Amino acid sequence: MRxxxxxxxxxxxxxxxxxxxxxxxxxxxGQTEANPDPIxxxxxxELLRVADMYAGEATGLPTSRRGxxxxxxxxxxxxxxxxxxxxxxxxxxxxSSLSPAGEAPAPTGEASPMDQLLGNLPQVIGPLVLGAQAxxxxxxxxxxxxxxxxxxxxxxISDELMAIPAAVDGFAAEWGLAPDDARMYVCLRDxxxxxxxxxxxxxxxxxxxxxxxxxxxxxxxxxxxxxxxGLDPTDPMSxxxxxxxxxxxxxxxxxxxxxxLLVPSRAFLTVLSGYADYFIDKVGQRLVGTYSxxxxxxxxxRLEEGPGQRVMGxxxxxxxxxxxxxxxxxxxxGVVERAGEEGLARLWTAAPNLPTPAEVDAPGLxxxxxxxxx
Length: 374
Description:
Blueprint: H1 2-8, H2 16-28, H3 38-59, E1 70-73, H4 76-86, H5 88-98, H6 113-119, H7 121-144, E2 160-163, H8 165-175, H9 179-197, H10 200-215, H11 221-227, H12 237-243, H13 246-253, H14 256-287, H15 291-303, H16 307-316, H17 322-345, H18 357-361, H19 363-369
Parallel strand pairs: 1-2
Helix pairs in contact: 1-6, 2-4, 2-7, 3-9, 3-14, 4-7, 5-7, 5-10, 7-16, 8-9, 9-14, 10-14, 14-17
């Protein structure tokens, strides 16, 4: 009980120990993982180099900051741990906005850890819930992830992209695809997303949205306390049972301000999705002999997104649904028809060139604004 009390009174707005433990457990479903297969790792590294070269040529964008991309093959648990660390700033900002207001009363005399826990219960609830929710959602995402950009989050500064060979090969086997074809698709997807999201003004736009959205949460503490009513401090599994429904939790806390913030960010994500799909298809058709089968399998997989993608996307304001995918395709098609790929290349040259929500619905307006057509 003393150790549990110390765990629950961990410093900071988000309980990272709870987050790490639940992320690893959820990612692996409690099972032991084997290390990435060396042959799959070497083959994926080779395919990444090919995807890097062809995608860079097709988009005209630099695909990395230093001149080349590196690959890091990981297990699901490693993906979850690395992702939690990479998203620490935004998750901390999120947790800070959800933390109960006010300071805990000063302790009098010598207090035991359990006295401190019970005396500071309002200050414990926020970090505990956010730690559990963050860990569960990242774990769900890791359980389904294949590479770096299963969610369109900011690019890693290192130009090192993660891949989960076991997940890619498992998906290929499930759909009857050649493993190399599935690996190439994931490599192409991640290279194209990385090329766009690593551009400074694009990264700044996305980062600003993430922090503004995270800071706009408002949490009703009575709703969270009700969720904790079934928590048994002596049973770690009760944390999963009481706090393991991120979708229900999210419905309690999204604010009107966040819904307003989603308007420009959804426009950006719509265009990003359409742009990435356009070049993945263009390059993939050249490099993958069974591309039509591979792209259809991945398209269906995206339509059947798992709870990690869906809920984390909603929590951070970066969810991409099918309507956005279709609208992004229409926008890109409209631009190419009017101004060719040269017009499309102007999307990411400067911050003012990012389309507004109205322009996403009317690509001709966007072209007119950036002086490509009259």
